[in-house]
From TrEMBL:
<feature type="binding site">
    <location>
        <position position="122"/>
    </location>
    <ligand>
        <name>S-adenosyl-L-methionine</name>
    </ligand>
</feature>
<dbReference type="InterPro" id="IPR025835">
    <property type="entry name" value="Thiopurine_S-MeTrfase"/>
</dbReference>
<dbReference type="InterPro" id="IPR008854">
    <property type="entry name" value="TPMT"/>
</dbReference>
<dbReference type="InterPro" id="IPR029063">
    <property type="entry name" value="SAM-dependent_MTases_sf"/>
</dbReference>
<keyword id="KW-0808">Transferase</keyword>
<feature type="binding site">
    <location>
        <position position="44"/>
    </location>
    <ligand>
        <name>S-adenosyl-L-methionine</name>
    </ligand>
</feature>
<keyword id="KW-0949">S-adenosyl-L-methionine</keyword>
<feature type="binding site">
    <location>
        <position position="9"/>
    </location>
    <ligand>
        <name>S-adenosyl-L-methionine</name>
    </ligand>
</feature>
<protein>
    <recommendedName>
        <fullName>Thiopurine S-methyltransferase</fullName>
        <ecNumber>2.1.1.67</ecNumber>
    </recommendedName>
</protein>
<feature type="binding site">
    <location>
        <position position="65"/>
    </location>
    <ligand>
        <name>S-adenosyl-L-methionine</name>
    </ligand>
</feature>
<keyword id="KW-0489">Methyltransferase</keyword>
<comment type="similarity">
    <text>Belongs to the class I-like SAM-binding methyltransferase superfamily. TPMT family.</text>
</comment>
<keyword id="KW-0963">Cytoplasm</keyword>
<dbReference type="Pfam" id="PF05724">
    <property type="entry name" value="TPMT"/>
</dbReference>
């Protein structure tokens, strides 16, 4: 799976990438009431311009991405100094208040991200096959503290077929996240040219007593 993503990036097959801010982020982020300076985790971040918006809104951003091409393309898109360092098994590239950790999201450990208070997933869950989605939801829950809030932008399609992107039903989103998060369904967009429908959810990490 990893090799497939690296290859996609090398060959420029990144149809999932948006060059403009995701409308759901702009519409709903402020409604989450995340403290302005809270650090936002962006798992499987690609070179999403949404990270610029979060950073411009005052949030330090921690993106995790397996493809070095994605990270290099992201930082090349802005003329701003870049700092490079190595920490806990990850090569990290920092540009302003955005740090991009090169490596496998599943290798990120809670000790390394203790200060995360919020998260943003657009097209991350849906990049993973079904058994890995279960692991993803559990891993995200381990990384963020009780009370952490975030947005999830997922995809469904009438006839589920081979992904990525994978079609993830609303029932599956609830089944994956409700053990550890409070979920609020926010909106469902119109179908795109391939019949995919994006749905947006607000999530809040539950505390030990629910
Ligand atoms: C569908 S793309 C979405 C990217 C971004 N969230 C966006 O909205 O443009 C999924 C991304 O996850 C990355 N990826 C896949 N598996 C990963 C993993 N285990 N750890 C970190 N990144 C991963 C891929 O390289 C790809 O850039």
């Amino acid at each position: 799976m990893t090799e497939q993503w690296l290859k996609r990036w090398r060959e420029g097959r990144i149809g999932f990438h948006r060059t403009t801010l995701h409308p759901a982020l702009e519409r709903y982020w402020l409604t989450l009431d995340v403290p302005r300076t809270a650090k936002v985790l962006v798992p499987l971040c690609g070179k999403s311009v949404d990270m610029r918006w979060l950073a411009d809104a005052g949030h330090p951003v921690l993106g995790v991405e397996i493809s070095p091409d994605a990270i290099e393309q992201f930082v090349a898109e802005r003329r701003q100094d870049v700092l490079r360092y190595y920490q806990a098994g990850f090569d990290i590239v920092r540009q302003g208040s955005i740090e991009l950790w090169l490596g496998d999201f599943f290798h990120l450990h809670i000790r390394q991200v203790a200060e995360i208070e919020a998260f943003y997933d657009r097209a991350s869950l849906i990049a993973l096959p079904r058994p890995t989605r279960q692991r993803y939801a559990f891993h995200l829950a381990q990384l963020v503290p009780p009370g952490a809030r975030g947005l999830l932008v997922s995809l469904t399609r009438g006839e589920a077929d081979a992904g990525p992107p994978y079609s993830v039903s609303h029932e599956e989103v609830e089944q994956l996240f409700s053990p550890n998060f409070r979920l609020t369904f926010l909106e469902q967009g119109p179908p795109d040219a391939r019949g995919f429908i994006e749905s947006t959810w607000a999530l809040e990490r539950r505390g030990p007593i629910g």
